[in-house]
Design a protein that fits this description.
The complex is a heterodimer of chains A (521) and B (170). With 521 residues, chain A is α/β, with parallel strands linked by helices. Helix content of chain A is 40%, strand content 15%. Chain A folds into four domains: 99 residues, Glutaredoxin, CATH 3.40.30.10; 210 residues, Rossmann fold, CATH 3.40.50.11540; 91 residues, Ubiquitin-like (UB roll) (Roll), CATH 3.10.20; 92 residues, de novo design (two linked rop proteins), CATH 1.20.1440. Chain B has a five-stranded mixed β-sheet, with helices on one face. Classes of the chains: A alpha/beta (521), B alpha+beta (170). Chains A and B meet through α1, β12, β16 and α17 of A and α3, α5, α6 and β5 of B.
Chain lengths: 521, 170
């Protein structure tokens, strides 16, 4: 038996582990040891085809072929039928991974390495072009790097969509002894998991992006503010930071230059508001996560009052591609003012949940039907919430809307961080509107009155509307008055709140009221 | 002040030594308070109310500031919780997949509400707003381990396994 060992890839990310991937990997490793099978188990990241996870892949002459979902109960059969020899007749056989339509029809730029490699292999990362962006940036002046980011058209992927280059330019132009790079990894929006996938499956991309940002604006210290709920991300990031430093991509004299940059991971503590950039900075400083009034902008007075680049994980992880392939390459994807690609994340009641990176512009329906395959339980789709808990609920009449910042703004909605949550026809939209207000009340930092008090009043008004034990005529003046009151309250919160939490709660509430008014009668 | 600390020291179960060591290790970090609180909670299981004075003195903060931070963040607790913390996601993606029913099942089966601990002291039930496991909703977490597509049956199995393990440990 002199055949070469076959590599079996068993993903290791939070969601695959939540389905039993650790057990699957253990079982294969134990069997390989006991039976002296020449099997080499590699823990890669997830490709993001979560309805097929745990999706196992094996190396063949034709490329990687996949099986899935391989649950712990399936492993005995997987091994008994010698699936590592490519058994096309096996019920879990999926064929070549690259040919799976869900993957093949994507445009993966930021996620190009995610799921392909062992997230903690510097060699594999470099082999697929990793750290090329950093090498390019080391040859450029700070202004040239910032200009490339500006020219790429990249906008913040955390939700606010602020032009990244403009933010960096402000920090570059502000003189200070100390500047900071802060990565916002407080991915609290329901229905989003792109940041988590990136950190767990390709942490070097984030580290490289932060390092390029540091070179561009002249910062020497970086923090990743990570939500407490993401413990695997914490472990992977800390290991990746150690490895990157050992290989001189981070730390002192990066790649023999005179540039130095360090990164530390800091854990949040269960406060959604800390995803708001100024609250995050307060939290990093060791304080309550209270929103700051702007101005001053964090780019001018950020962490400890120093100029600070604060960007989301995906924004920073996209930077290496822009530097390595040039701003025009990135800019050529997308439409209008929405350049490049966006990792959309399908969740909720959807048959094929997972991550879909596409250039901006396809209709929402493409994601829901062609990628998502309809609802998971086969019931009719009723509402889709795009952009997290502060995103609008959209009815079927708006699913033709193009996924780009401008088109979504015209229908009083936002793309946010790219989360797409599907609800079937059993959902009661007044209950969803109520939850939006309740969530705002729970998570409000309390600094401004419209958010702190308005959200509590909002719950009460929706409760009044929802009193089902009382029979109302459709044009009952008291009910109409309650609806006017709710709309008025939303307007006050939108115009009077300091930040997006109070300022955007009106999106889910008013969209539910407008598009699904029958649920409030 | 020193006398007061010494007398307290005799009345506690050694957490004071842990807090002091953690403070010595971390107090010079910029913005040290959250890392300090995390380290204390990881080691002791909660942040003892009596430790606030020690932390405040060490970090040159007022006790009010330290207390304010502990009470602001839901993750930090001032009293000991159950042996395990079980969190159920209440966010939208999980709602679309039946988390409201799962929440009722959990409360009924454990006979407690959110932020309460079972009478046996083995499980504290908490709400959580997104675990990033939205592609496999509904989700829950037991300590640091996340579980996906949790049905009432799966919930019962996991709780039962948890309780079996607790007995084995004893």
């Amino acid at each position: 038996m002199s055949q070469a060992a076959t590599t079996i890839y068993v993903p290791r990310d939070t969601t695959t582990i939540s389905l039993g991937a650790d057990q699957v990997a253990d079982m294969i490793q134990t069997s390989a040891a006991n039976e002296q099978q020449r099997l080499n188990v590699v823990r890669n990241g997830s490709r993001g085809l979560y309805w097929l996870e745990p999706m196992l892949e094996i190396d063949t002459d034709r490329g990687r072929v996949a099986y899935g979902p391989v649950m712990p109960d399936d492993v005995d059969d997987f091994l008994a039928t010698e699936c590592w020899r490519e058994q096309a007749g096996h019920p879990l056989y999926l064929g070549l991974t690259e040919d799976l339509p869900f993957l093949k029809n994507q445009q993966r730029l930021t996620f190009s390495k995610v799921g392909l490699i062992d997230p903690l292999s510097v060699d594999e990362y470099c082999h697929l072009g990793g750290f090329e962006g950093l090498r390019c940036a080391l040859k450029l002046s700070p202004q040239e790097t910032v200009s490339q980011v500006t020219d790429s058209g990249l906008r913040g992927r955390g939700g606010a969509a602020f032009p990244t280059g403009k933010k960096w330019q402000t920090v570059l132009d502000t003189r200070a002894e100390q500047k900071y790079i802060v990565c916002n990894a407080d991915e609290g929006d329901a229905g989003t998991y792109a940041d988590r996938m990136m950190m767990e499956s390709d942490p070097f991309a984030l580290i490289e992006g932060m390092t390029i940002a540091a070179l561009a604006v002249g910062a020497s210290i970086g923090y990743i503010y990570l939500r407490e709920e993401y413990r695997l991300s914490e472990e992977v990031l800390n290991a990746a930071i150690r490895l990157a430093s050992e290989h001189h991509f981070l730390g002192d004299n990066i790649l023999d230059s005179d540039k130095s940059f360090s990164i530390e991971v800091r854990l949040g503590a269960g406060a959604y508001i800390c995803g708001e950039e100024t609250a995050l900075l307060e939290s990093l400083e060791g304080k309550r996560g209270m929103v700051r009034a702007k101005p001053p902008l964090p780019a001018i007075q950020g962490l400890w009052q120093q100029p600070t680049v604060i960007n989301n994980v995906i924004t920073l992880a996209t930077i290496p591609t822009i530097l390595a392939k040039g701003p025009d390459f990135y800019r050529n994807f997308g439409i209008g003012g929405s350049r490049g690609t966006m990792p959309f994340q399908l969740s909720g009641n959807i048959k094929q949940a997972g991550l879909v990176e596409l250039a901006f512009g396809p209709p929402l329906a493409t994601l829901l039907n062609e990628f998502g395959g309809g609802t998971a339980n086969g019931r009719e789709m009723k509402a889709v919430q795009v952009g997290g808990p502060l995103g609008a609920y959209l009815p079927s009449t708006l699913w033709h809307t193009q996924l780009d910042y401008e088109a979504f703004a015209t229908v009083q909605a936002g793309i946010g961080h790219g989360g797409i949550i599907v609800f079937d026809d059993s959902v009661d939209m007044s209950e969803q509107a109520r939850f939006a207000m309740e969530f705002c009340a729970i998570e409000s930092c309390g600094k401004c009155t419209p958010c702190r008090i308005g959200s509590v009043r909002g719950v009460e008004v929706i409760d009044q509307l929802g009193q089902r034990d009382v029979e109302f005529e459709p044009d009952d003046p008291e009910r109409l008055a309650q609806k006017v009151l709710l709309e008025d309250l939303c307007e006050t919160m939108t115009l009077g709140s300091l930040c997006g939490l109070g300022g955007m709660t009106a999106f889910p509430v008013l969209s539910a009221l407008k598009h699904f008014s029958e649920d409030f009668d | 002040m020193i006398t007061e600390m010494n007398s307290t020291e005799e009345h506690n179960n050694g957490w004071q030594a842990s807090v002091k060591r953690i403070l010595t290790e971390l107090k010079d970090k910029p913005g040290a308070l959250l890392p300090v609180l995390h380290a204390i909670q990881t080691e002791i299981g909660y942040v003892p109310g009596e430790s606030v004075t020690l932390i405040a003195e060490s970090l040159s903060l007022s006790r009010a500031e330290v207390h304010g931070v502990i009470s602001f963040y839901t993750f930090f607790r001032s009293t000991r919780g159950g042996s395990h913390t079980l969190q159920i996601c209440r966010s939208e993606s999980c709602q679309a997949m039946g988390s409201r029913e799962l929440e009722s099942h959990a409360k009924q089966s454990l006979q407690i509400g959110f932020d309460q601990t079972t009478s046996a002291g083995d499980i504290t039930l908490e709400a959580v707003y997104c675990l990033g496991n939205c592609a496999c909703s509904p989700a829950m977490r037991i300590d640091h381990q996340v579980y996906g597509r949790v049905t009432a049956e799966k919930f019962d199995q996991l709780v039962s396994a948890l309780r079996t393990n607790v007995i084995e440990v004893k």
